[in-house]
Amino acid sequence: AKRGGRNAYAIFDPTMSMSVLEEAQQRADLEHALEHDEFRVLYQPVVDMHTQRLTAVEALVRWQHPRDGLLGPYHFIAGAEANGLIVPLGRWVLRQACAQLARWRAERPEAAGLKVNVNLSARQFQYAGLVDDVSAALADAGLDAASLTLEITESMLMADIEAAKETLHALRRLGVRLAIDDFGTGYSSLSYLKQLPVDVIKIDKTFVDEVHIDEDDVALVDAVAGLGQALKMQTVAEGIETDEQWETLRRIGIDHGQGYLFGRPAEPADIAALLSAETLS
Ligand code: C2E
Ligand code: CA
Ligand code: CA
Ligand code: CA
Fold this sequence. Notes:
Structural class: alpha/beta
Number of strands: 9
Oligomer: single chain
Number of helices: 12
Bound molecules: ligand C2E, calcium ion
Order of helices and strands: HEEEHHEHHEHHEHEHHEHEH
């Protein structure tokens, strides 16, 4: 992982061991930031691979730091995960995302079918109040559960498969959709994948980077596309930056795409403008 270039970021670097004092300071900083509304949510387009039209957006959190500027998740998610503040922070992101989708829908008829994806952290996924939080966020936003997709990584599922299965089924009963994030980077076995109530597989960017030039990556992505078909799960390729990558993935049969080619994480107003766009690249 890359180090932040500035000294001020060092205390958020999860690869550095922190003193007890530094940890306490970071916790206090994050708590202060939550109380003072310093976090923001940006939304990145997810498009249909064939029509290139917007089908969903992924909520990605940022910290508008009063001194250090706009910080990406790398600077604070691991710390928040370690000290537990990820639970209230994640709840805040979830509520923001649901409320924002309801707002787009109220403002624009084109947003009727739009969905929103929200990332869950390991700690949030294990948190006993998760299902109630999700249900409350949907109810308070007046949003139907099927419009929300929760993204969970393979490692979170594999840490305790029985517990994960139970949580996934409870979320499924609410009606929300579930996605496996960063697929291919973890160690999920096929036999477990089959048992999990998952709707979407998100293929990690590392398989996309060279898919237009590397036959091995084509074979791997092709295998995941087949897996998705066999298990009736939709596939999304992440980190698409070029036409060549898009063309290759579309030909393989990947259903949806996400990446700078279609749009970077953006403010809600910019997403509203994309809703009426014919295509996104
Ligand atoms: P992720 O869930 O895999 O999200 C995709 C990341 O890839 C985002 O980085 C996005 O900006 C970036 N990305 C998308 N398309 C491209 C592309 O074409 N090229 C390149 N180079 N990058 C692309 P971001 O926003 O910095 O988020 C990083 C990670 O932080 C996320 O990875 C996710 O694991 C975590 N994260 C972000 N928001 C949240 C949140 O609200 N809760 C939790 N628990 N984690 C979050
Ligand atoms: Ca994600
Ligand atoms: Ca991902
Ligand atoms: Ca190779």
